[in-house]
Amino acid sequence: MTDQARVVLVTGGSKGIGRAIAEAFRDAGYRVAATCRSGGVPDGVLPVVCDITDQVQVDAAFEHVEAELGFVEILIANAGVTKDTLLMRMSDDDWDTVIDTNLTGTFRVVRRASRAMMRARFGRIVLVSSVVALLGSPGQVNYSSSKAALVGMARSVTREIGTRGVTCNVVAPGFIDTDMTAVLGDDVIADYKKRIPAGRLGSVDDVASTALFLASDQAGYISGAVLPVDGGLGMGH
Asked: What range(s) does the Ketoreductase domain occupy (predicted)?
């Protein structure tokens, strides 16, 4: 089987980076499914309604993909949320909501996907983190903690099941031009551009092409790695 015939599941595939990743795999000829809680997924992608904070929904989502396309050979764990506020104002709910989605939700989908991957002795798991995982960011103690934990997750998964042909890597996007960043003021964006050695914001395609590479046969000897896609913003971290 060529890598382009494989089944891909992208979590959080209705917008932003997740949508671009789903489109990139679709355009490369993969069989692609994408989860969403609301809103549509790209044309040609199997839509799967799923809230990854609910294990029952996660199991149902995988069963749906398995019935329609086959077992998930490539998992792109992208779904995530933010609830930004300064540490002293951050409520338990602000913390719990972000951790339960970004970290525990990712754990749920990785655990479920790994079963079939181990049996098949092939799998690609890509966890979408963030430059703030290791760089830090004021007002994002919850978010940066959840994203930093994905590094430990990927490396532990690699040590557990790496001998079964399964790789697990982390993509750490920097400041990417999406609908979320579009609402920021020009001064904020200009300040970020000054701090980014590349001198520009990243595009969702920059992240999608990185995910494509890590999922390919050519990346079969890369595992437990953190691959920044940030124009140099976080280098040294």
From this structure: 6-179
